[in-house]
Design brief:
This protein is mainly β. It is built from 3 helices and 10 strands. Strands 1, 2, 3, 4, 5, 6, 7, 8, 9 and 10 form a 10-stranded mixed beta sheet that branches. β5 and β6 form a beta hairpin.
């Protein structure tokens, strides 16, 4: 009976170990070149537009087998123009979302993984238009509504697909089973098409929509901590 239980437990542990679990942190860098219309419209209204450059911090939970990998994603995106200038209005673009990505491994050897990642992200974007200048405290108290930011929201589901590579490193082997220097080159395509901007109470009719199709590059580290032995 004891031998049978030990055999079953060993088989169960072996099955569970087919999938290794880890966590990663990435930087995503991309361009938003298709948003010239909205940036020009903001500039016509003397509002300093957000940049065509996009940067994101992505936290992931990764699972993988010898032939497949998958990641759950938490994304914080920013495309704000941080340059300083004359007092006036400026537009900040930011986004937050969750998603998933995964795909097959074309190559899996002692040093490299070559992957074909694809997936989807659900994103909420905020366009915040605010005063970029300085004002006396007394004037601010007398005219608070003149300096209140205008916040517009937009949402979409972004599909992505591309190619990825993991370089396997022996980093801090006392605490990590393995560590990957991971990178991906991916194309993103929004699923829902053109979406109108919305404030808290109304829909904006004439501001061009946010166009999210782009190519972005992702690079980061993925850690697979050592598991504590079961008693």
């Amino acid at each position: 009976m004891t031998a049978t239980f030990t055999s079953v437990q060993a088989q169960t542990d072996s099955t569970l170990r087919i999938f290794d679990s880890g966590f990663g942190i990435y930087a995503e860098l991309g361009m938003l070149p298709a948003n010239k219309a909205i940036r020009n419209e903001l500039a016509k209204m003397n509002i300093k537009p957000f940049t065509a450059f996009m940067g994101s911090v992505v936290l992931t939970r990764r699972q993988e087998s010898p032939r497949w990998f998958s990641e759950g994603r938490i994304i914080a995106m920013n495309s704000t123009n941080y340059t300083t200038g004359k007092n006036g209005m400026k537009a900040d673009l930011a986004g937050i979302g969750i998603g998933t990505s995964g795909g097959p491994k074309l190559i899996n050897n002692a040093r490299w993984n070559l992957t074909i990642p694809f997936g989807a992200d659900v994103m909420l974007y905020r366009l915040s238009i605010k005063n970029d200048g300085q004002v006396a405290f007394g004037h601010l108290l007398q005219n608070p509504s003149a300096y209140k930011p205008v916040r517009l929201l937009n949402a979409n589901i972004n599909l992505h697909a591309g190619v990825g590579a993991d370089f396997k490193m022996n980093f801090l082997p006392k605490i990590n089973e393995k560590v990957f220097l991971s990178s991906k080159l991916t194309y993103q395509q929004p699923l829902l098409g053109k979406r109108k901007w919305k404030s808290e109470s109304v829909t904006v009719s004439d501001l061009p929509s946010l166009k999210l199709n782009q190519v972005f590059f992702q690079i980061g580290l993925v850690f697979f901590p050592k598991r504590k032995p079961k008693l």
